[in-house]
Amino acid sequence: MPTSADELPLAEEALRLGDREMDLAFAAAVSEARMHPVVLSADAKQIQARLQNAEKSHEHSPWFKILNREYSQKDGREELFERDRHSEPVAGWHSCALACAGVEGN
Asked: What confidence tens digit (pLDDT) does each residue in 57-66 have?
C-alpha cells in the first residue's frame, strides 16, 4: 500500500505490471497444455468415451417424461419444474442459480 501521494503512481504501475504478468503466465500455461496434452490412462479413456456416448445418446433419446400431476414435492416449487432444461449451459445450472439467489436474499 502506498503511504504517500508520490508512491501512488508507482503502486498503480506495479499492480498493472503484476496483472499483465499473470495474464501472460496464464496464456503460456494454456498454450503449453494445448501443445502437450495429458496422456489419458486406459481407465480415463473409458470414462471419456462413456461421457461422450452419453452426451450423444441424450440428444437423440427416445425417452420422454410424463409429469405426475399429484407429485407432492412440486407444490410451491413450480419454478424448478417449468424451465427449459435445454437452454442451461450446464445440467442443473438453474437449480444452482436459484439456490444462490436464495442465499444472497437472506
From this structure: 666 666 667 7
